[in-house]
Amino acid sequence: MRAVIVNDLMQSGYAYERAEPAGKNFAPGFRPELTPKEMLRLGIFGGVYMRDCREEFPADWWEGAKLAPDGSDERDPGLNCFGVNASQPLSVWQEKGWIDPRDPRGWFQWYCRYHMGRRLGGPSQAPSAKKGETEDERQIRRWKAIYRHIAQIRKHCRPGDPSCRPRQRQAVLQWAYDSRKM
After folding, report:
1. Residue 41, Cβ density class (10 Å: 0-12 exposed, 13-18 middle, ≥19 buried)
2. b/e map 119-142, b = 16+ CB within 10 Å
3. Long-range contacts: 128-132, Cβ < 8 Å, 24+?
4. What pLDDT was estimated at residue 170?
5. What is the three-class DSSP state of 100?
6. How far is CA 139 from the centre of its chain?
7. How far apart are CA 7 and CA 17, in angstroms?
8. Of the candidates 121, 145, 117, the residue with the CA atom closest to the CA atom of residue 132
9. Checking phi first, is residue 119 left (phi over 0); if not, alpha (psi -120 to 50) or beta?
10. Which residues of 57-70 are buried (b: 16+ CB within 10 A; e: fewer)?
11. How far apart, in Å, are the Cα atoms of 148 and each of 55, 66, 86, 139, 142?
12. What is the mean pLDDT of each run of 10 residues along the chain (182 residues)?
């Protein structure tokens, strides 16, 4: 196990252990199609997400990543894989109770840490969690729920047509499903 201490703009002094090898030993049924590195290179969240977290993750994740210039807080839809904005502001996620304080940036931060080997036992601290549910279980349940959007893309679009439902394709991509193939 390797301890990680986080000090970025949204967390200071948060520590966690990486209990599993990076990219290995995911929970049964949790099989993301994209790694965080691939997602960053394809373009997600308008290029402003987690730019201050580079020290926490492998340097090669940031090589070729589509990021807005440092100092810019404005999302640039042109940096997204499908060229559209498909994100709600973090404030919406907070209002809906989707944020566990251990991952104040939400799903993608959780996924990056999970991919790197962190596993969270004990109950989730997110208000939206089901009773007794761990944070890993909650996030995996939410990831699986995105499949309903994949079903809509497949039902209404010709395979591989990026002009069909681009916002939905971008949203699905931001949950580690490769919507370019759909």
Report:
1. middle
2. bbeebbebeebeeebbbbbbbbeb
3. 128/96, 128/97, 128/98, 129/100
4. 97
5. coil
6. 10
7. 15
8. 121
9. beta
10. beeebbeebbbbee
11. 35, 27, 16, 16, 11
12. 90 95 97 98 93 94 93 90 92 92 96 98 93 96 95 94 95 96 86
Distance CA 73, CA 78 (A): 14
- From 11, 13, 17, 97, select the one nearest 50 (Cα to Cα): 11
CA distances from 89 to 159, 170, 180 (A): 30, 15, 24
For 6, phi and psi rounded to 5 degrees? -100, 130
| pLDDT at residue number 158 | 93
Residue 15 is which amino acid?
A
Q: CA nearest 103: which of 151, 53, 154?
A: 53
DSSP states of 33-57 as a string? Answer: SS-HHHHHHH--GGG-TTGGGGGGS
| In contact, 174 and 108? CB cutoff 8 Å | yes
Position 81: which residue type?
C
Q: Count of residues for the chain?
A: 182
Task: Scan for tokens 């002094």, then name that residue.
Answer: 13
